Amino acid sequence: MRLGIISDTHGTITSRALQALQNADHILHAGDITTPEVIRALETIAPVTAIRGNMDHSQWGRNLAVTDMLEFNGVYFYMLHNLHALDIDPKAAGVQVVISGHTHQSDIRTIDGVLYFNPGSASHGRHGNPESVGQIELNNGRIVPGIITLG
């Protein structure tokens, strides 16, 4: 199974981002969406699970959950926008992957057996970082993360 991971679109979804996510079986959006059109565009590729970011102030955005716990192929994911607001102990909760956004900087690291994954921003890189999205391959219990640069 291939998961497409995207964050911080801020109302913009480029053809490069859509193309990079084209082979996803499911797409996770880690917030700062700002418009439902972004989700509709992603849904032309695969089912989408999205959470609210700090810029999702509209009535539509306020209807999104702040966090979500998901399971794909026996792997548990926890999604939130800002990693600094993490409100659970992922390892104790049985979570193998924490998905976040907010920083506009891609990051993949493993801490205490938990994968922390930030795809960066699909619309506005920061601090010299290019626009990017991510993907996570799930294959027989293996979790293979990757960042896709859009520039």
Descriptive notes:
By secondary structure, the protein is mainly beta. It is built from 3 helices and 10 strands. It has helices at residues 15-20, 36-43, 59-62, and strands at 2-6, 26-29, 48-50, 67-72, 75-80, 97-99, 106-111, 114-119, 132-139, 142-149. The strands form 2 sheets. A 5-stranded mixed beta sheet has the order 3-2-1-9-10, covered by helices on one side. Strands 4-5-6-8-7 form a 5-stranded mixed beta sheet, with no helix packed on it. The mean pLDDT is 95.
- The number of helical segments is 3
State the strand order across the main sheet.
3-2-1-9-10
Helix content: 10-25%
Low-pLDDT parts are none
Q: What is the number of beta strands?
A: 10
- Radius of gyration over C-alpha positions, nearest whole angstrom: 14 Å
Beta-strand content estimate: 35-45%
Sheet having the most strands: 5 strands, mixed
Shape: globular
Which structural class matches the secondary elements?
mainly beta
Cα distance, first to last residue? 26 Å
Q: Note the run of SSEs as H and E.
A: EHEHEHEEEEEEE
| Mean pLDDT over the residues | 95
Main features:
151 residues, five-stranded mixed β-sheet, 3 helices, mainly beta
